[in-house]
Structure formats: C-alpha cells, structure tokens
Design a protein that fits this description.
The complex is a heterodimer. By secondary structure, chain A is α+β, with helices and mostly antiparallel strands. Chain A is built from 13 helices and 14 strands. The chains are: A alpha+beta, B alpha/beta. The interface between A and B is medium-sized, with 21 and 30 residues.
C-alpha cells in the first residue's frame, strides 16, 4: 500500500466531514498561530526594549556617587561625590586603552521661565558635546553646540519635544531666550522625539554645555551628578568598566571595592538583564500558547475516536478483504496527520500574517525557528493523539466490525 | 484419488463455536463437519439464528473455531497468525456481503482496486485488473461512479467484481441478494452461476429458497447443526441456474 493511496484515502475521509474537520483543525490552527504570534510579540517587545537601551549607548559606562539611588549608608562624614578631578583622572587613564571619551555630567534641578510660563523639566544636563552622541540624541531642528561653546561657556541649550510643548506651546523656540533658574539661555536646537523609555518621558529633557551650567547654575568645582565613559568598542565595555572602577577607587583612596562611594553601571549589562527579562516573558507566552496546542491535539484525538466508531463497518470491510493491521493503523494515523498538518499550516499562515501587523507601540518580529517548532509540534501532537484511535480501529475484530450497524 | 481437483477446498471437522451472551453460552455451531470441493456451488441455508453467519465467518477466516479443525486448502487455519489470516482473506477468498458494503464516497473502480492495494500491487497493474473485473460484470461504464450513484444491483455487482479481482480460490457470499428486488436477484445469482461455470468455487449463505434453486448442493443448518445435505447437480456439471436461464431462450 503506497503513501499516495493512503494520503488520498485520508483526504477523502476529511472532505467527507468538512465542518467537523475544519473545527478540529481550528484547535491546532489557533495553537500554532498563537505560539508564532506570541513569540513574535515577545521578540518585538525585546527588540523595542533593546532599541530603547541602544539610546543609552551600548558603549557607555556610567558612574554615580553612592546615594544617588537612595542607597547611602550614612556612615561617612563627607557626602560621597564625583568631581572634575575624577574625570581628569579617567581621561589620563583613558589614554592607555579601553576608555575613549570621558563625559562629566551636571544635573542641577532647574525651573525654566519663558514669558511667564514656568516649567521644570525632568532632566537638565550640563555636559560636553560627546554627551549628545553617547546618549544618541538626534537633532530635529536648529544646531548643536560644540567644544568652542563649551569652553566659552556660551549659555545655549537644546530642548526635548516635551519641554518645547510645555514651555512654548508648539511655537518655534529656536533663538528664544529662556530663564533657567534666573540665568538666560538661548535655545539653539530641538531634539528629535524619542518617546517613552526607562524612567519615563525621554523627551522631557534639555542639554546645555558643561561650562555654562557649571558657571551659571551649579557653581565652580561643584560635584558631578554623573560621569559617563565611552568605551573604545562594544567589546571593551567590560574592561572600561573595570578601569573606571579602579581609577575612581584610587582617586578616592579606597582599598576595598565594597566600600566604594560610587556606583558603576555598564549599559551592556543593563541590556543583558532586560533581555533575560523579556526572554522569560516570551517563554511564558509561548508556554501558554503551547497549552492551547495540546488542547487542540486532544480535539484531534476526540474526533478520531468518533471517526473510528462511525466507520466501524468500513473497517470491517477493509479487514475482511485483507487489510493488514498495519494498513488500518496507517490509514487512521495518516488522517490524524493530515488534519494536524493542514491545521498547523493554516496556523502558520495566520500567525505569520498577523505577525506582520503592528501592535501599537512596537512591531512583532516573527521568529522562523518558532514557526518550524510550532508546526512540528502540531504534527507530532496530531500523530501522538492519533495513535490511540488508530490502534483501536486496527484492533477491531472483523466479524464484530462487520456486524456493527 | 488425492489429486488437487479431488481435495476439498474447505474441510470442517467436528467444529464447535460458542458465544457468550452475558451469562448464557450460545452454541452457534455444534459439531459441524462439512467439506466443499473445488468447483462446487453450495448454498448454505438456514433461518436466522441457525448458525449460518457463524459458519460463514469461520469459512471466511474471519473467526476461528473453538473446537475442531478447519482446513482451508489443506492448511489448518488455527496455525496461522492474524497477519497470515489477513493474507488468506486478501488473496484466496472473495467476500460479498449483504447490503451496502462498498466504501462510501469512493468510486467503483477504487473499491474494486482495494484488495489489490492491500496486496501491495502497483498502481497501473491494479487499475488494469480492476477495470477488467468491472467490464466483465458489465459495469465498464460505471468505473468512476460512487456507490450513492449506483443502484442496489449495480452496487452488489461492484462488490462481486471486488471479490473476484484477486482471482480467489473461493467466493463467499453472505445473503448476497438480501437487499435486492427479485429481478435484480436473478441477475446477481446468474452472475454467480457464470463465475462457478468458469470453475470457481462459490459458497452462498442465504435463507431464501430462490437462491438455493441455483445451487448444485444445498446444506441446511438448524440450531448450529447440519440437518440436511442435498446434492442436486454433479460438481463437474454446469450450475442448474445457468441451465434454467438458458432454457427459455
């Protein structure tokens, strides 16, 4: 008995009960489609989060004074701080290798006033021009500031979209002078929108040259809120992190790293943590979808059992005219296989199709391994749940099967 | 005396078959001994409950006797495995059942092909043989009709073609005319006579006297025992039904 004949018999049996076959397949279709789609959603979410994190700069290593995140132990006589001296030390160290640019950051809390409108942005950073590229800021309009502006302490600033909206109500801010805690800054540019990110609205920010902020707002030699180091390459981020830690320990005369009065973050490790989280999330979604696949398989078994008892007489005739046990098992297994195969295939088409549709804030990304796995699992499930009904059919004794009405 | 032609094709010796219906044991066959010779046309008659269906199941290797021996063409069927029994049914016995015994939603040609499919024959060869078998019984123009598109007589003829396509040693028919009107019954019975006239052994199981009129030998069963065994025509002669059909013409 060749395969083509068997497939024809199976397809004919399926077409004989179109609605029933369709409903049976639907179970597996939904299962397969759900696995593919939910994995795609998980992947899309991960990619979206990664894209957010890329904005932090994949080569960035940040140092914050201890206490920034409410973790000050309070045992020290002097509040821990990072200074320009630390930044200078890092720059000297940087000439040896992994550390590229060193970017000191001041983050005074400010209130801006323009023609009577007052607004306090989430973030107001005073830093060097490298800060803009390290943070992946892109300019929508106007110009950026450069080293010269920094050195000459030019009071200019670039605003995020939220600040522009709050302060200027949609008017063009370029060239306008804004009072920042009393100091007048000229708006020279507007950043491109970045959307929501970690810690809220990334557009609720303004950046000005380090020199200007130091002289007009923070005061000379005031402590830095943060130091950002750009590693020379993505691979050397770890080395840069170590070098930064060691340099700061040396500068602060601390021997035991556990006593450090600063915290160092590597953006790559933040990305890694976020990836793990979204991965668990993805597996969870896939697992839930997998359960629906299993339920679909049970549906196949149910229908195959009905089919076998409905066709008892047919089985009797087949056995009487000499069908071997294996031929009967094969026939019903193949029917289960065709059901689950076609059901799975429709699920693949549906899952991949829906995966192309955007889901609001991010685009799902269909993962081809998930397609292959979901389809294979659906066929395997069909096969597995087909075994019992097929064996039951084959075990029927021909005379009993013939007598069956 | 022991030439191939003389040896019985089926031989039952002291066969018992008992079914348990709940607590009650029903003796469907009690000590039945029966031999059928090659080329014979035997009608096995009996009312319902006489054990004739059980006899047919045993003869057709669908069921094994509880006691006694059944030799099919000299082989004790109790020594055969399930798979070997399937092979015997497939290649040595042609079955015709009562009523609608074609596979649903399957064209006549594929129904007839089915035993050859299970025998593992190649597509081209079995198509040729199935077509031939259908043409021989006058259904050459109905090859691609499904059973629902055929009359009762046509369906039974397709079933006969299916039984003959493997060129079996014995044709076994269980109430082959049970679902047919009397005119169609004659057509189908004459077909059995033709088949027998070509030298094939035919065993008809029936309760209708009309059918028995076509047989060379009539065996009557009652309560699981053979109560009468009447030879009407010699095995080597043409079947009486065929002669009767020819006479008026």
């Amino acid at each position: 008995m060749n395969t083509l004949d068997s497939v024809r018999i199976a397809v004919r049996a399926m077409l004989a009960h179109r609605l029933r076959s369709l409903l049976t397949m639907l179970g597996l279709t939904i299962g397969v489609g759900a696995v593919i789609l939910l994995v795609a959603v998980g992947n899309g979410a991960q990619a979206a989060i990664n894209a957010e994190l890329e904005d932090l700069g994949t080569r960035s290593v940040f140092a914050f004074p201890r206490g920034t995140f409410g973790d000050n132990t309070g045992t020290r006589s002097r509040a821990p701080e990072l200074t320009l001296r630390d930044a200078e030390a890092l720059r000297r160290r940087g000439e040896a290798g992994a550390i590229g640019s060193v970017v000191p950051i001041l983050r005074p809390s400010v209130t801006m006033t323009w023609r009577g409108t007052r607004y306090s942005p989430e973030e107001f950073a005073g830093s060097t021009p490298e800060y803009l590229s390290a943070q992946n800021y892109k300019l929508a309009r106007g110009t950026t500031f450069d080293e010269g502006d920094d050195r000459q302490r030019n009071r200019v600033m670039i605003l995020g979209q939220t600040v522009v909206r709050e302060l200027f109500g949609g008017r063009d801010p370029i060239g306008e002078r804004v009072s920042v805690n009393g100091a007048r800054y000229r708006v020279i540019g507007v950043f491109a929108a970045r959307g929501e990110g970690f810690g809220g609205d990334q557009d609720d920010a303004a950046v000005a040259p380090f020199g200007a902020v130091e002289s007009s707002l923070s005061g000379a030699n005031s402590p830095l809120q943060s130091i950002l180091v750009q590693a020379t390459s993505r691979q050397s981020t770890g080395i840069a992190e170590q070098a930064m830690t060691q340099t700061l320990l040396d500068e602060h005369n601390i021997e035991n790293p556990d006593d450090a009065d600063f915290l160092v973050f590597n953006s790559s490790s933040i990305i890694a943590v976020a990836n793990t989280t979204t991965q668990i999330f993805t597996y969870l979604l896939a697992g839930v979808a997998g359960i629906s696949l299993l339920v679909g398989g049970i549906g196949v078994m149910n229908i195959m059992l009905v089919t076998v008892s409905e066709r008892t007489r047919e089985i009797g005739i087949r056995k009487a005219i000499g069908a071997q046990r294996s031929a009967i098992v094969g026939q019903f297994l193949l029917e289960a296989l065709v059901l689950s195969g076609i059901g799975g295939l429709i699920g693949v088409i549906a899952g991949v199709g829906l995966g192309q549709v955007g889901a609001g804030s991010f685009q799902p990304i269909v993962s081809w391994p998930s397609v292959v796995v979901a389809f294979t699992v659906s066929v395997t499930i069909g096969l597995f749940f087909g075994i019992y009904p097929a064996n039951r059919a084959a075990a029927l004794r021909p005379i009993e099967a013939l007598r069956y009405e | 005396m022991s030439t191939d032609a003389q040896r019985p094709i089926v031989a039952l010796r002291d066969v018992w078959k008992t079914y348990c219906l709940g607590e009650v044991a029903v003796h469907a066959l009690r000590d039945v001994s029966l031999a059928v010779r090659r080329g014979d046309l035997v009608a096995i008659m009996g009312a319902s409950g006489s054990g004739k269906s059980t006899l047919m199941n045993v003869l057709g290797c669908l069921d094994l006797p509880d006691r006694g021996r059944y030799l099919f063409d000299g082989i004790d069927v109790r020594t055969l495995s399930e798979s070997q029994l399937a092979e015997v049914r497939n290649q040595r016995i042609g079955f015709v059942f009562q009523g609608f015994n074609l596979i649903a939603r399957t064209p006549a040609l594929e129904n007839v092909e089915l035993p050859l499919v299970y025998a593992g024959m190649g597509r081209r060869e079995r198509r040729r043989r199935a077509t031939e078998a259908l043409e021989r019984i006058g259904l050459g123009d109905r090859l691609h009709h499904q059973s629902t598109e055929l009359s009762g007589g046509q369906q039974q003829r397709v079933a006969i073609a299916r039984a003959l396509v493997t060129d079996p040693t014995m044709l076994l028919a269980d109430e082959p005319t049970g679902a047919l009107d009397s005119e169609t019954t004659d057509t189908v019975l004459r077909l059995f006579c033709d088949i027998n006239a070509q030298g094939r052994t035919v065993v008809l199981i029936t309760h209708e006297e009309q059918v028995a009129a076509y047989a060379k030998r009539v065996v009557r069963l009652r309560d699981g025992r053979v109560v009468a065994d009447e030879r009407r025509t010699a095995v080597s002669d043409p079947p009486p039904g065929l002669a009767a059909a020819l006479e008026p013409a």
